[in-house]
Amino acid sequence: MHDALLIDRAPLGTGLFCETWTLNDPASRNALTDAMVDALLGACTRAQSDAALRGVVLRGAGGHFCAGGSLGGFAKAIGQPLGAGMTDPLVPLNRRFGALLQALCGLPQWLVVAVEGPAMGGGLGLACCGDLVLADAGAQFGAPEVTLGLVPAQIAPFVVRRLGPAAARRWLLSGARSGAAAALQAGLVDEVIEGAMDDAVQAAVQRMATTAPQAIAATKHLLLQVQSALPLPALLDDAAHQFARALRGPEASEGLAAFTARKAPPWNPAA
């Protein structure tokens, strides 16, 4: 049984450290499982009170960043309506990922996100939390949820924050994939890396390590305050209900079945 999240702590100087958090399920292209989300939340909670930790690098194992959320825990609910008067267990499961995105954005340390391979769905949401986002030239980004009959529930506010409303509409409503160059143009990515990602990450860490930790924490807090025109927790609560309703509806059942069979779903003209 492998660890869902690998944490490597490296020295930056006397008593100061940077950690690399690596999503660790390359066989699934690091699809987000409950265990992975829990491990990331735990790492974020610990980092909040770690005065020696100056920064975090988030990346994926095996040349993949993150292919999105794992539907393993939702499988039995796909296309199954909720019984009258029942509380939907899917809501807190979905909402927990929103809590993770909030925690990543709220880290008092700088967060470098290094994307290789896919950053889809939930992976796109993770990328949107980065203070500095590096992407391999071959990286792919997208929010395919609407093509599967699902709702990009928890990631939507963070995509809007990162890309702005107009670009977020294009990304979230089309479900299309974008390469690293398009992601750079949209403002999702800060640098496209043509060479070795390890070298680019190390160079980024060296640049970020020159910043003052208390100033970074205060500036990040200020930026979050500027962005908080909407009550984000209430928005994410509603989004979790929207996700649960979509997953239990007929579109998700048809869309996910078509995806598994490598066919076009019935609403696609190519079907």
Give a structural overview.
With 271 residues, the chain is of the alpha/beta class. 43% of the residues lie in helices and 18% in strands. The strands form two sheets. A six-stranded mixed beta sheet has the order 1-2-3-4-6-9, with helices on both faces. The chain has a three-stranded mixed beta sheet with strand order 5-7-8. Strand 3, helix 2 (90-105) and strand 4 form a beta-alpha-beta unit. Helix 1 packs parallel to helix 2 and helix 4 crosses helix 5. The longest helix has 17 residues, at 232-248. The radius of gyration is 18 Å and the shape is globular.
Question: What does this entry show, briefly?
Answer:
The protein is an alpha/beta fold. It has ten helices and nine strands.
Write the layout of secondary structure elements.
Blueprint: E1 5-13, E2 16-23, H1 34-48, E3 53-60, H2 90-105, E4 110-115, E5 118-120, H3 122-127, E6 132-136, E7 140-142, H4 156-163, H5 165-174, E8 177-179, H6 180-186, E9 191-193, H7 197-208, H8 213-227, H9 232-248, H10 250-260
Parallel strand pairs: 2-3, 3-4, 4-6, 5-7, 6-9
Antiparallel strand pairs: 1-2, 7-8
Helix pairs in contact: 1-2, 2-9, 4-5
